[in-house]
Amino acid sequence: MIFEAKYLIVALYFMRILASCKNPIRTPIFDKDGESYRIIVPFQEGIEISRYEIMEGRRNCDVNSFNPIYSSNEIYLKGNMMIIELDEECEDESKIYSICITTKDVKTFFTESFFYDRKKGYFLERFAEDSRFYKVYAPHIGGTLFVGGAAALVYCFLR
């Protein structure tokens, strides 16, 4: 009985870790209005945003190479979406960009990185340049791992 309780404690500990790793910032949505661009950043309800920074990094480099190029405490919110107007300074094809969001309780979150494609004249998510395999099958692989883990936990508890 004590041996099975250890399994339960370990399983609950790992589930707690997985639940706390979830990023409350969703995938950004890009919009073009005439010549100006805007990025719409959906976020989880209950998040109170205090500031944001636009971060710039070089393509095919380390994630830690990002530097802030713009920051603001003025935030335009519409429901649970933050709307940011992008300037022409973010149209460098050799750079990738990300939005760093700081909450009122001083937690920092980053959006997925994106870049400007001159051929299309539009901003794209970074995964759009990666292989199609990852983009198409990542949710299926994640779901399979989750179901397998859940089945293993059920097996441990019911045997």
From TrEMBL:
Residues 1-19 form the signal peptide. Keywords: Membrane, Signal, Transmembrane, Transmembrane helix. The keyword Transmembrane applies. The chain crosses the membrane at residues 137-158. The keyword Signal applies. The lineage of its organism: Eukaryota, Fungi, Fungi incertae sedis, Microsporidia, Nosematidae. This is Uncharacterized protein.
